[in-house]
Amino acid sequence: MTFERYGASRPLTGEPLAQVLSLLEDSFPETERRATPAQRRMLEKGEIGALAARNEDGTLAAILTMWPLEDALFLEHFAVSSALRSQGLGGKILEELKSQTDCPLVLEAEPPETDWARRRLGFYARHGWAAQEDFPYVQPPYRAGGESLPLYLLSCPAFSSREQAERTAREIHRTVYKTTR
User: Fold this and answer.
1) Quick one: pLDDT at residue 133?
2) Which residues make Cβ contacts (< 8 Å) with residue 54, sequence separation at least 6?
3) Cα(49)–Cα(35) distance, rounded to whole angstroms?
4) Are 17 and 40 in contact (CB under 8 A)?
5) 39: exposed, middle or buried (C-beta count within 10 Å: 0-12, 13-18, 19+)?
6) pLDDT value at position 31?
7) 9 C-beta neighbours (distance < 10 Å), count
8) Which of 9, 40, 88, 133 is most buried, judged by most C-beta within 10 A?
9) pLDDT for the residue numbered 116
10) How confident is the model at residue 14, as a pLDDT?
11) How do residues 2-50 score in pLDDT, each as one tens digit?
């Protein structure tokens, strides 16, 4: 397994970009991601970064897309190839990112209302993430006419205070979703 980091100084282009877009389309319903042309543009320009995990043959195994924030790195999409799920790859890429990054990491996840959501929260907890359960967080819609989604905001390490979670949430809304809350 090899890891490749992309961002402003090394934008994602060509065949690697096509592989990433395909995995994102396969892994997320349309309502949970940007339109593909917008996602392509942001990755090509290095506006958002990515950490790709590749198999020994060079095929894409997993991808994390991320936004640099003022005091954190926001993980927007995390996808593992369906053929490789439940083999520990998700944990490996999270640990790799933590080893490459010296700022707090933040992501959104569904509240524990389904078995899958509980399993996902357990996965993140095993890797050092903490949910800000007392903080009402809502993800704005990705597309015009879409619906907002109540989620948990998770961080690694844990937020030091509710105020830090609120500041980070405002910055995510402003930077990632281009809205205010």
Assistant:
1) 85
2) 1, 2, 3, 4, 60, 61
3) 17
4) yes
5) buried
6) 86
7) 8
8) 40
9) 93
10) 94
11) 999 999 999 999 999 999 999 999 999 888 899 999 999 999 999 999 9
Q: How far is it, in rounded angstroms, from Cα 89 to Cα 169?
A: 28
Length of the chain: 181
Instruction: Give the span between the Cα atoms of 172 and 181, in whole angstroms.
Output: 10
Which pairs count as long-range contacts for 66-69, CB under 8 Å and 24+ apart, including other chains?
A: 66/97, 67/172, 67/175, 67/176, 68/7, 69/106, 69/168, 69/171, 69/172, 69/175
The DSSP secondary-structure symbol of 64 reads E
CA 103 – CA 125 distance, rounded (Å): 18
Taking the CA atoms of residue 19, residue 93, residue 170 and residue 71 in that order, the dihedral angle to the nearest 10 degrees is -120
What is the residue whose two structure tokens read 């958002």?
A: 48
Look up tokens 């926001």; give the residue.
74
